[in-house]
Specification:
This protein is an alpha/beta fold. It has helices spanning 14-30, 51-55, 63-75, 183-191, 205-223, 272-281; strands at 2-7, 35-37, 78-87, 98-99, 109-110, 113-120, 126-131, 137-139, 144-146, 151-152, 159-163, 169-174, 196-198, 226-229, 233-235, 241-243, 246-249, 255-259, 264-269. The model is unreliable at 94-109 (pLDDT under 50).
Length: 290
């Protein structure tokens, strides 16, 4: 199966980001990709975290979801829409509201949204949804991030089956960015027989430089699965710099593709016989005791 990892340098305009994504998805389809995966926040990396609230959509409707469905249908490929902000039902909100900082009375009450990764089939149907479970927080005195101010965490893993042109049904497990630091979710997928792990991301330059490659290769090796990690990669108009280095990795930990910086598409062929051979040669998944 041919899989495309799409790297972007998204900005603050949803429409411009969708236009860029369409060009890259078309390139992926032209290269024979059956599955194309966009990065986290492919549709918006705004000037403030709260910009996600203005772009939020109810699940099943909205311009971003219509774009993904239409692209999958017209290009006849599977598309994983990195992440997009989906509205949170009132009964899922923790507390009444959050504020956007500032002095007393200076900020408006704000709700949170899910950071969701949606899977669309070549028929344009949304067949799976994964809400990011682990919310990034980092503060080294120079950079500060706290996704929980605007995002609501998801509460369960998500998988889907992808029948490929080679006749095999690939089991695919979903995750997003900061999930990469929590191997438990990937063990859940391995126990369910997943063959491909997706990690659409927007790693910071600081944390990516330190840990991105080693974490991705570890997840591939320990779960004997392919890993596809499309990323944001470059300097964004909001001043944020993301690490990039989108990667696709085989179950032995070999890097099949890597794009250091800038927008682009990398298509690799996932080798089903090789996957089965490696699992026979090293049946580590059968040797787990916990």
């Amino acid at each position: 199966m041919k899989l495309a990892a799409i790297q972007m340098v998204s900005g603050a305009s949803v429409q411009r980001n969708l236009d860029s994504a369409r060009v890259l998805l078309t390139e992926a389809a032209s290269a024979g990709a059956e599955l194309a995966v966009l990065p986290e926040y492919f549709c918006l990396l705004g000037h403030r975290d709260t910009d996600k609230l203005d772009a939020q959509e109810p699940f099943g409707d909205g311009p971003i979801q219509h774009f993904l469905a239409g692209a999958a249908r017209s290009l006849r490929i599977w598309i994983v829409g990195g992440t997009l902000p989906l509205s949170c039902d009132a009964d899922r909100l923790e507390g009444d509201a959050i504020t956007d900082g500032g002095g007393a009375g200076a900020a408006l009450p704000l709700h949170r949204v899910f950071n969701s990764s949606l899977v669309f089939s070549p028929a344009g149907d949304c067949v799976q949804r994964y809400d990011k479970m682990h919310l990034f927080r980092f503060d080294n005195g120079r950079e500060r991030y706290d996704e929980s101010r605007v995002l609501m965490r998801g509460d369960k893993p998500a998988m889907f089956d992808l029948p490929s042109r080679d006749g095999h049904v690939w089991k695919v497990g979903q995750s997003v960015c900061y999930d990469l630091r929590f191997p438990e979710i990937y063990r859940t997928y391995a126990a369910a027989g997943v063959d491909v792990l997706l990690v659409p991301s927007a790693f910071t330059h600081t944390t990516g430089q330190a840990h991105w490659e080693v974490l991705l290769r570890a997840r591939a090796i320990e779960n004997l699965a392919f890993v596809a990690a499309p990323a944001q990669g470059g300097l964004h108009e909001n001043g944020r710099r993301t690490w990039g280095h989108s990667m696709q990795i085989d179950p032995w930990g070999v890097i099949l593709s890597e794009r250091v910086e800038g927008a682009g598409v990398d298509v690799v062929e996932l080798d089903w016989p090789k996957l089965q051979q490696l699992r026979r040669h090293l049946p580590a998944l059968e040797h787990r005791v916990l």
